[in-house]
Design goal:
Elements lengths: L23 H18 L3 E2 L5 E3 H7 L4 H4 L4 E3 L5 E4 L4 H11 L5 E10 L11 E10 L4 H18 L4 E7 L3 H16 L7 H4 L6 H5 L4 H6 L12 H17 L4 E2 L11 E9 L8 E7 L3 H4 L7 E7 H11 L11 E5 L4 H12 L4 E3 L6 H10 L4 E5 L1 H6 L1 E6 L7 E4 L3 H9 L12
Parallel strand pairs: 1-5, 7-8, 12-13, 12-14
Antiparallel strand pairs: 2-4, 3-4, 5-6, 6-11, 7-9, 9-10, 10-11, 14-15, 15-16
Helix pairs in contact: 1-5, 5-10
The chain binds one RNA strand of 78 nucleotides through strand 6, strand 10, strand 11, helix 12 and helix 14.
RNA sequence: GUGGCUGUAGCUCAGCCCGGUUAGAGCGCCAGGUUGUGAUCCUGGAUGUCGGGGGUUCAAGUCCCCUCAGCCACCCCA
């Protein structure tokens, strides 16, 4: 028997979570930056809300949904408070609105994790990340159009083409309630024609049965009443204006009267973006809708609102499937190679950082060959070489790695100026922030 | 929560059906190819609780059981 001490079992990320490491993380940064830019230009400001809330914030707004009934990560803290990790983005933002009462229209965006206790699979995690916007305080159908257009444009800017927009109207809160009752009765009369799994849902979630994927059920409900046939005049007018707006902007869409979203606070417009490039089961990459009663249900004044969320993981998965939006190239311009022990590399690298350059260096006093190898792999355009000769003479050998040009030496005191010229593209001065 | 498939070096995998010397490949990593120069090429090297536990056996990466994890699907949704 070996006497070697047993190593502790290595830890792994919890089920359904994942680490995002370089270079993949640079795609995340770029994606979020694109999003922030697009929605920022439309007047949306960043909102940062807590990752957990009193459980009531979520249960109040989604008591009938699986997302809050079965999938919430809830816990008691040391003060016996019943809290929950947020399962979706809208409720937290609505709670913040109620708490702070900002002037309306209040338009915000977020990039934040959501948590749901589900079995993970392709495109589905227990912690996933959403980009989203919420606009509160206006019932203007043009706002519905604006919000949908933001997401449409975002996908388009990434280069995604195989995206379908599906929209529906749930009508006013009264329309919705009446329709749910009507559907429940209608399905109740045909309950034995449904797939048993769907039949079980009729009492609690009749609407859910309508977007069933089971062939037996699909056949049984072809003639089910459609909400679009029984909307109030007010709701019809709203929906008409939303469609007219999308038409005017040239945004293609399909009206799907059976579209049912996972949260049951929606009124009027609901929408979903579906990727046809994904062969996984999870093809919805974004969705949202209007929620005119939500703020009130959280104790605020009657306040209309609309928003969407789109899953970063799924969007990136779709980008991969369509072969668009690759990870940005390496961000390093210079690599310092020092064979004199490393002090020169330390001084030059930090000095160049302070002057705004993007610089890396080798550590551990490796051989020159090894350092050059690393320099090459770093993607740097130029290696700055310091050997004993350079050190003694107060110079640096500047060796281009990407272009076929001879290397040359530059005096240390002229290095910054020389490199600025050499790299040609304008670099920010040390005081400014990077672009 | 239910079901199917898969777990062997950092990564991708072979070996398992037909148990048997020090467990392999490619890529990656490290070093060297004469005295200071990368991406090619050549040579050499390091690294494995064969997911974990139990069992069968003279002997298990290979067979059996349990368990955990990953993937995929149901469900649900981003």
């Amino acid at each position: 028997m070996s006497e070697s001490p047993s190593r502790p079992e290595p830890f792994k990320a919890p089920v359904g979570t994942h680490d995002v490491l370089p270079p993949e993380s640079s795609r995340w940064q770029a994606l979020i930056a694109r999003f922030a830019d697009r929605v920022g230009r439309a007047g949306y400001g960043l909102v940062q809300s807590p990752m957990f809330e009193e459980i009531g914030v979520f249960s109040r707004v989604g008591e009938g949904t699986d997302v809050v009934r079965k999938e919430m990560y809830d816990f008691l803290d040391k003060g016996e408070r019943h809290l929950a990790l947020r399962p979706e983005g809208t409720a937290s933002v609505a709670r913040a609105f109620v708490q702070h009462r900002p002037t309306t229209p209040w338009k915000v965006w977020y990039a934040a994790p959501s948590f749901r206790y589900e079995r993970p699979q392709a495109g589905r995690y227990r912690q996933h990340h959403q980009l989203g916007v919420e606009a509160l305080g206006s019932a203007d159908p043009d706002l519905d159009v604006e919000v949908i257009a933001l997401l449409w444009d975002f996908y388009a800017a990434l280069g995604l083409r195989q995206i379908e927009l599906v929209i529906n109207s749930m009508g006013t809160a009264e329309d919705r309630r009446a329709h749910v009752d009507r559907i429940r009765l209608w399905l109740g009369d045909r309950i034995d024609q449904l797939d048993p799994a769907d039949a079980a849902k009729v009492a609690d979630h009749p609407m859910r049965v309508l977007d069933s994927k089971r062939p037996v059920t699909i056949a049984a409900i072809v003639d089910a009443p459609r909400i679009t046939d029984s909307l109030s005049p007010e709701a019809v007018a709203h929906f008409d204006r939303v469609r007219a707006g999308l038409d005017a902007l040239g945004i293609p869409y399909r009206v799907e009267p059976r579209l049912v979203r996972g949260l049951d606070y929606y009124t009027h417009t609901t929408f979903e973006f579906i990727s046809h490039a994904l062969d996984a089961a999870q093809s919805t990459i974004g969705g949202g809708g209007r929620y005119d009663g939500l703020v009130e249900s959280l104790g605020g004044p009657p306040t209309p609102g609309i928003g969407f969320g789109t899953g970063i993981e799924r969007v990136l998965l779709t980008c991969e499937a369509e072969g668009v939006f690759p990870a940005p190239a390496a961000a390093i311009d210079l690599y310092v190679v020092d064979t004199t022990g490393g002090d020169a590399a330390r001084d030059i690298a930090v000095d160049l950082h302070r002057h705004g350059f993007r610089v890396e260096r080798a550590y551990d006093a490796r051989s020159m060959k090894s350092q050059m190898k690393t320099a090459d792999r770093s993607g740097a355009r130029i290696a700055l070489i310091i050997g004993s000769d350079e050190l003694a003479a107060g110079i640096v050998t500047v060796r281009p790695l990407r272009e076929d040009q001879p290397q040359r030496t530059v005096a240390r005191e002229h290095l910054v100026a020389e490199l600025r010229t050499l790299l040609s593209d304008p670099l920010p001065s040390p005081s400014e922030d990077h672009p």
